[in-house]
Amino acid sequence: MESFSVANLAVVPQPAATFFDRPCSFLTGSHLKAPFRSITKSNSPISSSAIPKPIRAVFSEVVAAGSNLGCQQEMITREEGLIIYEDMILGRTFEDMCAQMYYRGKMFGFVHLYNGQEAVSTGFIKLLKQQDCVVSTYRDHVHALSKGVTARSVMAELFGKATGCCRGQGGSMHMFSKEFNMLGGFAFIGEGIPVATGAAFTSKYKREVLKEPCDDVTLAFFGDGTCNNGQFFECLNMAVLWKLPIVFVVENNLWAIGMSHLRSTSDPEIWKKGAAFGMPGVHVDGMDVLKVREVAKEAISRARRGDGPTLVECETYRFRGHSLADPDELRNPDEKAHYAARDPIVAFKKYLIEKNLAKESDLKSIEKKIDELIDDAVEFAEASPVPPRSQLLENVFADPKGFGIGPDGKYRCEDPGFTQGTAQV
Amino acid sequence: MLGVLSRKACSISVLDRSPWTIRHALPVSTRNYSTATKEMTVRDALNSALDEEMSADSRVFMIGEEVGEYQGAYKISKGLLDKYGPDRVRDTPITEAGFAGIAVGAAYHGLRPVVEFMTFNFSMQAIDHIVNSAAKMNYMSAGEISVPIVFRGPNGAAAGVSSQHSQCYGAWYGSIPGLKVLTPYSSEDARGLLKSAIRDPDPVVFLENELLYGESFPVTEEVMDSSFCVPIGKAKIEREGKDVTIVTFSKMVGYSLKAAELLSKEGISAEVINLRSIRPLDRDTINASVRKTNRLVTVEEGFPQHGIGAEICASVVEESFEYLDAAVERIAGADVPTPYAVNLERMAVPQIEDIVRAAKRACYRSVSMAVAA
């Protein structure tokens, strides 16, 4: 199978003539009513002599009709297929359980669920090594799970228990894990992009200054709303300038709370913005995990080789509201139905069965296994203790002795009176 | 001087003093003609204030994220899009620095924007414009360019939203010369202060509180009047007392009033002052009160170091030192980023028991300073 031609991109790519050359219908949003034709684009270099053949991805009508997903040849093995399926089911089941637990009062504050977007997380993160970094936004539960953080620790964190991945101090929007290099979890959109760029910078620095063998790649996940924020553009510039090993993954789910992408963006085609900075910009159907995986493979290996950053725009959709407190009144039910019909898990299941990579019973047993895993995670979280009083003053500094001396000359966070609730805070 | 300017700018005459003062100016009579009070939530109070100011002056416009079609992230601007149209209630992309800057520029040039930050935590992305472009402009231009802008939004801790969504910005903005910083508590405060803020020719940072939005308070006829304004820079004595002065603002006023109830059962009569305005700070009222009671407790939700309590204590020590019978007590949030877990968050924010304890300490009712039961 010809490799996706991101590698052959010239510094100033020119898009091939495609669907997107009809700006009028796109900008008025009428495309949202028609089945969305998504094409994995290849930006051919200016000289036409060696135009790489763009991969014609499958039209969404074909997917809806239930036939060929992906390209002609087999793209994955059975083992890979099962891993992908399991990861997507894990993400979906976990988020559904979160909703249940929230409405029962076990979780509180802001909880942002990822239903519908699993293909993006699985498609990208399952290609990473443990040392590669992932930086996300507040919609980070599934990114953490895909990266390897256990369901138990994420669930316990959401319940605010001491056994959570951040000991109950972070919460839903702040999933961090040093072990799995999950660098967050940020409440402000756009905040994660410079952080991710910095992680990529470290990777390059280690290789070039510290002379360590390091080809770690960073993935920055963020949404369409973030692409209007200054930090996004600043980091695109610096990533190209310094050729950092990063992939900017835009999860374009068309809505930022109640603000439609088309209402807030002068040019809604985000993938094009990479070209302005000299980086390849790619648009991919984010409801199809195999297409995402193809693009991800190429983008990640590009970064690992040292060829620099890539901007990948994934067209995806969130089936639930922005957060569990969002009444979700502004989105058109037709649009929701259109994307619900393109559920990535349903489509992939169909693919696996049709390509004889798995039987119905295998997939059922995976689903059962995940259900049990999630139930176990909930039980674990329920049974875990809440953080002790003494934890309030811990972790403010990495060097706790800098934090403050209590009235008796001892370190405040070690004051036994504090633990018993009798010390003055 | 600032207080005088704000009163001139506020086109009010009869209501030039706080409603509290007026009530006392009227002859005491058993026949009270305006007893009819209705209840109004803070959310509705803010909405009605915005509505009235936008209809009175067509230069006033709202700009921010989700203020229009979503009816406001916390439904404060509900119905305004339908009434005034998308040109005056403007939804923006997610770029605080960008739209706050645009609003400041519009204010330089004659419009009167009301900028909504979804929470004041996000104002950190725009703080350069709030401080450098808005607050300092009148001074830098020697009065050539004034900036009649209002930055409003919820401030401080909510419930379970973790550290990046829970910071209180009163102290940060309160230290900037050129800014007016207001912190309403009740519906009356919210309505009156927002109307004053919009009519004010200077940049105003209007710090609301998310947990107060749904609370109802009684409002009188005069509060519902469309020219009702609360003067900027004047604190309100919510509850009179003679033993200890509790100075506070925003949500902590509610807690302090409850604490005062508990204290009165133990024989301590607490005076609760609702600051309403962090900058300009009403030092006269605070000092007059301390001179009466001789004891001070300040309560705030924000971080303790360099907080608002610190400024109040300094002011009282400077001006009323001889009148103090006890050391000043400061209650503030814990000196940690707000944690997520429920029990930790409760410890990180002042509770009613903390205020009661501090008041008792100031009255020498507890055993020692270091151990508080």
UniProtKB/TrEMBL annotation, chain A:
One of the GO biological process terms: pyruvate decarboxylation to acetyl-CoA
Entry keyword set: Coiled coil, Oxidoreductase, Pyruvate, Thiamine pyrophosphate
Gene3D superfamilies: 3.40.50.970
Coiled coil stretches, renumbered: 356-383
InterPro entries cross-referenced by the UniProt entry: DH_E1, PDH_E1_Alpha_Subunit, Pyrv_DH_E1_asu_subgrp-y, THDP-binding
Source superkingdom: Eukaryota
Catalytic reaction(s) noted: N(6)-[(R)-lipoyl]-L-lysyl-[protein] + pyruvate + H(+) = N(6)-[(R)-S(8)-acetyldihydrolipoyl]-L-lysyl-[protein] + CO2
All residue ranges annotated as the Dehydrogenase E1 component domain in the record: 87-387
Function: The pyruvate dehydrogenase complex catalyzes the overall conversion of pyruvate to acetyl-CoA and CO(2). It contains multiple copies of three enzymatic components: pyruvate dehydrogenase (E1), dihydrolipoamide acetyltransferase (E2) and lipoamide dehydrogenase (E3).
Protein name: Pyruvate dehydrogenase E1 component subunit alpha
UniProtKB/TrEMBL annotation, chain B:
EC number, UniProt record: 1.2.4.1
Catalytic reactions of this protein: N(6)-[(R)-lipoyl]-L-lysyl-[protein] + pyruvate + H(+) = N(6)-[(R)-S(8)-acetyldihydrolipoyl]-L-lysyl-[protein] + CO2
Compartment annotation: Mitochondrion matrix
InterPro entries with a match to the protein in the record: PDHB_mito-type, THDP-binding, Transketo_C/PFOR_II, Transketolase-like_Pyr-bd, Transketolase_C
GO CC terms: mitochondrial matrix; pyruvate dehydrogenase complex
Keywords for this protein: Metal-binding, Mitochondrion, Oxidoreductase, Potassium, Pyruvate, Thiamine pyrophosphate, Transit peptide
Transmembrane segments: none
Claim: Transcription is one of the keywords in the record: no
A GO MF label: pyruvate dehydrogenase (acetyl-transferring) activity
Cofactor requirements of the protein: thiamine diphosphate
Gene Ontology biological process: pyruvate decarboxylation to acetyl-CoA
Signal peptide: none
Subunit structure: Tetramer of 2 alpha and 2 beta subunits.
Its job: The pyruvate dehydrogenase complex catalyzes the overall conversion of pyruvate to acetyl-CoA and CO(2). It contains multiple copies of three enzymatic components: pyruvate dehydrogenase (E1), dihydrolipoamide acetyltransferase (E2) and lipoamide dehydrogenase (E3). The pyruvate dehydrogenase complex catalyzes the overall conversion of pyruvate to acetyl-CoA and CO2.
UniProt-recorded name of the protein: Pyruvate dehydrogenase E1 component subunit beta
Taxonomic lineage: Eukaryota, Viridiplantae, Streptophyta, Embryophyta, Tracheophyta
